[in-house]
């Protein structure tokens, strides 16, 4: 009955009235029976019968065995008390002091000698030691073992003195010898006392050093070694000092409590008084602190309760003491009592919940704890403490995680991307991915590339570089990656879940790296930036999509600009970023007070991108700055439109030059020669060849040079128009284009002036005949006759085998100009130089034709998808920091233009005019 009651007490903490009354009745009947048997045995002069030992046979009772939760728990496999083998060895595998220390030092030698005399009192004093020891005060019970051990020595000394007196009465003759012996004995006793004093001093000094080493024992081996060393200094005074040192552990050194508890548990196997005294001191301190009910000394309270919990795991402190402390905290579940209860559960709650003897009672205590947490209005810190302590003791039931079974090809892809990829293995990984069967694994590759948040943040640029490398061979793969990244960014904005924040940051970094490797355009970046600022605003779900206290969108903008913002420092992208940063400041001000970490990131961002930009503090200042910025842009656009009207002829000539990159390859050579070969004649001849239709269509005529460029141009075909429209659809800033046109105009004008000066200084061998000197209707303005021959062509055909060549010479008499025909010897330097010049011009014509045809073939391959993607093109005003391995060989690329200007040689104009 006592054993069953003990189990009920450990499980529930109290006994019912029926159980207590039945136990009292059985106890009284047992005492009466034992007295009667004792008196009968005394009357018969016999020993009372020895009662059989109770083997603690378990049976079904109303205690923990009869409850349904434990019964159901017993059906399952019991959970292990300890999480791992190291923890189990720390709390259960204690060193055996008897194997290291002699029994004399442990105080066990005298107890073996006195085992026989104590057998007679074994039956009567069965429960006395526990009661007597429980009535002792702390630090006084340490005297009990040494006093008990000294009693047999006193008895033996008294017996020895009586024998000496009897011998002295019988033998009076030897009194003198005895006196001499006594004097010798007294001298030896004095020497022994002096030696004992010396040993005590040595022990005291060694004990002080041992206690000083105690706070440094932060491992199992160190504390076990210190425990063995203390056994060699074992004494009553030293045990008192050790208990005080263990009890006075620093309140901030909670990591020492498990090792101190291990020392107490190890010593308690041979010195029962140490564990009982320190437990009593801890219990008295706990009662004092909890009854004081002040909100002071929280660290002392936590140290006290954690010490009790550690001793409970070593099975030194009984579970009833832990439950009584926990019950005292739950009765007044406020302030520091919440912290004390949570620290107790964190220390030994899991141990008590998994122990079969205390599982039911701990489950009841945990249920009470959660009910109190739900009923009381706890602050967030205490609420979190309670939940952590509860789930640490009783983790929520979860099903076992089922690992995915992937095919070997998918496992190899994941190994290459998430494990093998680094700076040194980049080329190897790219080659291995190119060898894969893309028809089967392209979709899975795209899925893996979108899981950049599962890898290292510092390797996202390697994933982007790998994407750029693969897109050179699989165009649709790069497009798919960019599309998926943009989709995931929008999904993150629509959901705005806290668990997706790491993924959203990784995707912003990934998008910036894709721009750096020219897989995305700047328009995509700015559209994403503005989407981060305005998405969800003005709708009913604004507080859900972008709460006022949520600053994560600011962090996303910072991440994207830190990745690729350094490339927006020139041209139109610079103005776009300046405009966005103004709107970004407006968004930040509308958010209110920004956390310090985000504020520091903002300062770093502005210092890196726009160190001279003003940080505004109010919305009015930002609105004023935006108005000034937009007004300056409107002014610049108006100036640009004015320049367009005034320089329409130049732009049309430039557009015609651009048309040379199109599909019109048949007339391209002649037009090139005509356009870029001007400047050969005087003003009268130049003005004489203006096309009337062209003059009518150009009301803003801009001079003879433009008219020269437009002379003889055929009507632009539909195919040329489509090419020009395709080039106009490129993303080119108007202001940047106007600046480029102005610079190009100045370069062309300077070139024309230099060519005019050059041509005036050199003698001309061929020139056009003036209109007023044309003879008859059979000749055109170039002096060609009805047979279509003139100039050098006539020379070629008419000379034949003659040694003289007929030529026409323009002469002037007064105000009249006439032409005369002359015969010049064929070996003349004039004729020879003319022939050499024609041969050089013919060779130049062939070179120009070959270059234009090669460019057109390359452009057709790019448009049909047969060639490479041309990722290395350079955009005006947007020079990237990194380009892939392809080189720029004359192609304009995305958003650029291609201009080709052939070299000029003297006499080109006359030659091309004759070859028309």
Automatic annotation (TrEMBL):
<feature type="compositionally biased region" description="Basic and acidic residues">
    <location>
        <begin position="777"/>
        <end position="787"/>
    </location>
</feature>
<feature type="region of interest" description="Disordered">
    <location>
        <begin position="860"/>
        <end position="916"/>
    </location>
</feature>
<dbReference type="GO" id="GO:0005737">
    <property type="term" value="C:cytoplasm"/>
</dbReference>
<feature type="compositionally biased region" description="Basic and acidic residues">
    <location>
        <begin position="159"/>
        <end position="200"/>
    </location>
</feature>
<feature type="region of interest" description="Disordered">
    <location>
        <begin position="111"/>
        <end position="200"/>
    </location>
</feature>
<feature type="compositionally biased region" description="Basic and acidic residues">
    <location>
        <begin position="752"/>
        <end position="761"/>
    </location>
</feature>
<dbReference type="GO" id="GO:0003723">
    <property type="term" value="F:RNA binding"/>
</dbReference>
<feature type="region of interest" description="Disordered">
    <location>
        <begin position="45"/>
        <end position="80"/>
    </location>
</feature>
<feature type="domain" description="MIF4G">
    <location>
        <begin position="208"/>
        <end position="396"/>
    </location>
</feature>
<dbReference type="GO" id="GO:0000184">
    <property type="term" value="P:nuclear-transcribed mRNA catabolic process, nonsense-mediated decay"/>
</dbReference>
<dbReference type="Pfam" id="PF02854">
    <property type="entry name" value="MIF4G"/>
</dbReference>
<dbReference type="InterPro" id="IPR039762">
    <property type="entry name" value="Nmd2/UPF2"/>
</dbReference>
<dbReference type="InterPro" id="IPR003890">
    <property type="entry name" value="MIF4G-like_typ-3"/>
</dbReference>
<dbReference type="InterPro" id="IPR016024">
    <property type="entry name" value="ARM-type_fold"/>
</dbReference>
<dbReference type="Pfam" id="PF04050">
    <property type="entry name" value="Upf2"/>
</dbReference>
<keyword id="KW-0963">Cytoplasm</keyword>
<dbReference type="InterPro" id="IPR007193">
    <property type="entry name" value="Upf2/Nmd2_C"/>
</dbReference>
<feature type="compositionally biased region" description="Polar residues">
    <location>
        <begin position="114"/>
        <end position="123"/>
    </location>
</feature>
<feature type="compositionally biased region" description="Acidic residues">
    <location>
        <begin position="789"/>
        <end position="799"/>
    </location>
</feature>
<protein>
    <recommendedName>
        <fullName>MIF4G domain-containing protein</fullName>
    </recommendedName>
</protein>
<feature type="region of interest" description="Disordered">
    <location>
        <begin position="630"/>
        <end position="801"/>
    </location>
</feature>
<feature type="compositionally biased region" description="Basic and acidic residues">
    <location>
        <begin position="722"/>
        <end position="731"/>
    </location>
</feature>
<dbReference type="GO" id="GO:0035145">
    <property type="term" value="C:exon-exon junction complex"/>
</dbReference>
<feature type="domain" description="MIF4G">
    <location>
        <begin position="411"/>
        <end position="612"/>
    </location>
</feature>
<feature type="compositionally biased region" description="Basic and acidic residues">
    <location>
        <begin position="631"/>
        <end position="653"/>
    </location>
</feature>
